[in-house]
From TrEMBL:
It comes from Periconia macrospinosa. Residues 175-397 form the RMT2 domain. It is an enzyme of class 2 (transferase). Belongs to the class I-like SAM-binding methyltransferase superfamily. RMT2 methyltransferase family. Transmembrane segments: none annotated. The lineage of its organism: Eukaryota, Fungi, Dikarya, Ascomycota, Pezizomycotina. This is Arginine N-methyltransferase 2.
């Protein structure tokens, strides 16, 4: 969050920092940043802006022959080194990276993606070490929280929920903020869409092509042992069936989805084994039984990135055959291009650390989706970008 200066002197310093950033005056900025913060705002400005937003906006459009020069790049780097926040929002709801993207400033955009990856990796390491409570980390989380309006599927991290504690369960105004609360909430199956109790779209049928491709990538031939986690509208499971698996495990935790599986005859299908419950409870048992699978697909709801990470680094490594394929729904931060790019890269790095190589396939999302009627009646669009990056993971050789 940008800091608003209090005194007249602070305001002047803020104005000088923003002005030096805007002029890409690196020597002046170096001196000024010894006294002031890289995250100041000028409260007297008509459109409040942080120094890094100002520095990037001042680059202009690359297509007008204004490709960012060395001093612009140095300015952005200097501000980042001094703590400028990669996903800070200005009044237009743009991060610095969003501005770079709009201006076609590829080098600057790449700097912002790299900064986002560094910040998120550091933040997750601090969380793992129990150091998430310091001011800077909290500040970062607050900004990242504002970055994730998309409720569907993997959220980047837990948003600030507004829980009202009752005796033993939370009441949330958005059930997707807590997996266990979601699993107790009412679902509605409507034509082409599955909604939760808070009107979040859990699944939509525009994703059919994506699901079919995921099924193909985890099942390159017939007769394999496959597993899908999260049945939803059954799109991926229907696609998996066309590859005639010798075993087709489905893990699903929501009672209404079990009911639907029953109504649609999934329990009677040959080779289909339905595991009712959360994957967190089912998978340790499958590991204990020594189950080995040729393909695993993961697409749940109301779970954050940490759940996905736990899924592959704790379980996929134990359940997947040496030549097996792992796929997962890549919806991380899909309502903002820079968040999608940052988290796609973070996931790739964490997957590598867990022992997986990743191949990405780009799939064009229907161009008519953005702002379309498909989102009517939903809480918010969880997808606003053009390309779905489909991951295919195999063990590192
Ligand atoms: C986005 S939908 C899956 C859509 C599916 N890929 C399709 O093609 O229709 C997510 C599903 O995961 C289920 N789910 C959520 N959390 C779960 C958990 N912890 N364990 C198992 N299933 C879960 C939800 O109830 C929902 O049915």
């Amino acid at each position: 969050m940008a800091l608003e200066p209090a005194s007249e002197g602070d305001i002047q310093l803020a104005q000088r920092i923003i002005s030096a950033a805007e002029r890409h005056d690196v020597p002046a900025l170096k001196v000024l940043l010894k006294e002031g913060s890289a995250n100041v705002q000028d409260p007297t400005a008509t459109v409040a802006t942080s120094p890094i937003h100002a520095a990037i906006a001042a680059c202009g459009k690359a297509e007008d022959g204004k490709e960012a020069d060395e001093s612009a790049i140095q300015t952005v780097n200097l501000l980042l080194q001094n703590g400028a926040i990669w996903n800070d929002l200005n009044k237009e709801d743009d991060t610095p990276g969003c501005i770079a993207l709009k201006l076609g400033q590829k080098k600057i955009y790449e700097l912002m993606v790299e900064a986002g990856v560094r910040a998120e990796l550091l933040f997750s390491k601090m969380e793992a070490l129990g150091l998430g409570g310091n001011d800077e980390a909290e500040e970062e989380e607050e900004v990242a929280g504002e970055e994730q309006p998309a409720a569907k599927k993997q959220k980047v991290s837990e948003e600030e929920a507004k829980p009202v504690e009752t005796v033993d369960e939370k009441v949330l105004d958005d059930v997707s903020l807590d997996n266990k609360v979601y699993l107790k909430s009412q679902l509605r199956y409507k034509p082409g869409i599955l909604l939760d109790e808070s009107d979040n779209a859990v699944m939509m049928d525009w994703e059919t092509q994506i699901m079919q491709r995921h099924a193909e990538t985890i099942a390159p031939k017939k007769g394999l042992k496959l597993m899908n986690v999260g049945h939803g509208m059954g799109i991926v499971d229907t696609a998996i069936q066309t590859h005639e698996p010798s075993e087709h495990h489905i893990i699903e935790a929501h009672p209404q989805v079990h009911q639907r599986l029953r109504e649609q005859g999934w329990y009677e299908k040959p080779n289909v084994i339905i595991h009712e419950g959360r994957w967190q409870d089912i998978l340790p048992k499958l590991v204990e039984q020594g189950v080995v699978l040729d393909g695993i697909y993961y697409d749940t709801f109301a779970e954050d990135y940490n759940a996905l990470k736990e899924f592959f680094s704790e379980y996929v490594i134990q359940l997947l055959a040496p030549e097996g394929k792992f796929g997962w729904y890549n919806g991380l931060g899909a309502d903002r291009q820079i968040c999608y790019d940052v988290y796609t890269r973070v996931a790739e790095m964490d997957l590598y650390e867990a022992g997986f190589d990743t191949v990405w396939e780009d799939i064009q999302v229907p161009p008519t989706l953005r702002g379309s009627k498909e989102w009517e009646g939903t809480r918010r669009p969880y997808w606003t970008i053009d390309i779905y990056r489909l991951p295919i993971n195999t063990f590192v050789k």
